Amino acid sequence: MNIQNLIENLTSWFLVHGVRIVFILIVANLINRFSRNIIKKTIEKQIQDNISEQEKGMRIETLIAVFEGTLKFIIWTVALLMILPEFGLEIAPILASVGVMGLAVGMAAKDIISDFISGLFIILENQYCIGEEIKVAGIEGKVKEITLRKTIIESSDGSIHSIPNSKVTVISKK
Questions:
Q1: Cα-flanking dihedrals φ and ψ of residue 50, to 5°?
Q2: How far does the chain reach from its first CA to its final CA, in angstroms?
Q3: How far, CA to CA in Å, does 132 sit from each of 60, 135, 142, 143, 146?
Q4: Distance separating alpha carbons of residues 156 and 145, to the nearest angstrom
Q5: CA-CA-CA-CA torsion for 124, 130, 132, 137, nearest 10 degrees?
Q6: Per-residue pLDDT at 1
Q7: Which helix (H) or strand (E) holds 27?
Q8: What confidence score (pLDDT) does residue 26 get?
Q9: pLDDT tens figures, 137-164
Q10: Block means of pLDDT (10 residues each) for the chain, length 174 residues?
């Protein structure tokens, strides 16, 4: 095989497959860029107006980060799955392997996933806010921080308690 044939083969491959790959990457990048504005506008419409601007801003940024990260993962995963066949790779066995691995990881990380889902609902439903006096999981004190993973409470004696959001089942406010 000479250089001329190699160049012709690469050129013809690129004209067919390369153009598709570039198109998929451009579309994925555009969707990714515009998704933040769409997510932000949607979330801003849903957030209640009866909270402080600082708290509203924090809640909006938290929710944007969660939804944007999830959407970004989905967009690039779909783009990758669309690109792989262009290189002649079968995606059915890859999807089956990923499904089994996802199941294993999901089972191993169920507590973390549960914390994140609970944290999302705590923030979305405005169950409690930073600075509020609450009693949760048998601990009473002032809320210092709320993340998707945990709630941090400072009790009256100055002790700092980190409570996984999945353990927040009953909340008492003062």
A1: -90, 25
A2: 81
A3: 19, 10, 6, 6, 11
A4: 16
A5: 70
A6: 62
A7: helix 19-46
A8: 96
A9: 889 999 998 888 899 999 999 999 999 9
A10: 83 88 95 88 77 76 80 92 90 86 84 88 83 90 88 94 91 83
Closest CA to 140 of 164, 159, 120: 159
DSSP percent split of the chain into helix, strand, coil, nearest 5: 65, 15, 20
Residue 82 pLDDT = 93
Place of tokens 């579309």: 27
What one-letter code names the amino acid at 62?
A: T
Q: How far, CA to CA in Å, does 20 sit from each of 27, 33, 88, 92, 142?
A: 11, 20, 13, 20, 55
**Domains in the chain, CATH or no CATH each:** 3-108 (1.10.287.1260), 133-173 (2.30.30.60)
